[in-house]
Amino acid sequence: MPPSASSAPDTAIMRCLRVLDCLGATPGPHTPTTIGATTGLPPATVHRILATLVEWGGVERIGRGRYRLGLHMWRLGAAVPSARVLRDLALPYLEDLYEATHLVVHMAVPDGDEVLYLEKITARRSVRVTSGVGRRLPMHATGPGKVLLAFGDPSLLERVVENGLPRLTPATITSERALRAALADIRRTGVAISREEASAGTASVAAPVFAEGRDAVAALAVVGAADSIDTARLAQPLRTVAHALSRALQARAQVGGLPPASFN
Fold it and tell me: Residue limits of the HTH iclR-type domain (predicted)?
């Protein structure tokens, strides 16, 4: 699992962070009742924390008794150096990939034992996908996640397997043996092809992005409708763009502007 306040000591600050974790887990909006049920905090504590966070600007109150993360949290997130530098450097490559495919384009990075989506480019008529900027999903159930497992530190795979492989759809890989076989194929071909493993009706092709080390620091993916996407045709342009972004990251790291460790 990604870093969380749920297992930390029960202090006032940690209770506040548990509320923020809850609000950030799904788009919302959330009510004090759902927040209390998720965090295990008493109603009075939830209301007190929400009032403080609203005053600070980290949470917005919308309508009657409904809450969501506020713009102050977005400003803090946008200031994270590693994510900002990676996103700024990658965006032109993502735009090129979108222009070449006119499909949903993602960039994702490892976040604890899950995959975090940093950027997404889409069109009005693109297929609907479960992923979105700032959302985390299980690594074993997504194309970018499987790429990061295949080309990441072996200890990451061991943690993911140890934590279990929950089923998101009937096509989700849920056995260790099947996952290891899929990752071996990804290492052989350089891409991960996923069909309806995270959401019904979608398929994706994903490829790794490297900085200076041997482990992938990010993954690029193209997503389309499962019944029409040509994954074989998309594999080569995706590899080409991922390789070009990798070279740009490596060049940036060599001049000291991009510490690779900041993405791990």
Answer: 10-71
pLDDT at 85 over 80: no
**pTM: predicted TM-score of the whole model, two decimal places:** 0.74
Which of 42, 76, 110 is a domain's end point?
Answer: 76
CA nearest 142: which of 111, 177, 121? 111
- Residues 40, 132, single domain; the answer is no
DSSP letters for 37-89: HHH---HHHHHHHHHHHHHHTSEEE-SSS-EEE-HHHHHHHHT-HHHHHHHHH
Residue 4: inside a domain = no
Measured from the Cβ of residue 130, the count of other Cβ atoms closer than 10 Å reads 16
pLDDT digit string (tens) for 19-34? 988 888 777 789 999 9
For residue 262, what are the contacts with CB-CB under 8 A and spacing of at least 6?
81, 82, 85
| Residues sharing a CB contact under 8 Å with residue 69, sequence separation 6 or more, in sequence order | 20, 23, 24, 28, 58, 59, 60
Look up the domain containing 45 and give its range. Answer: 12-76
- Does the residue 2 lie in any domain? no
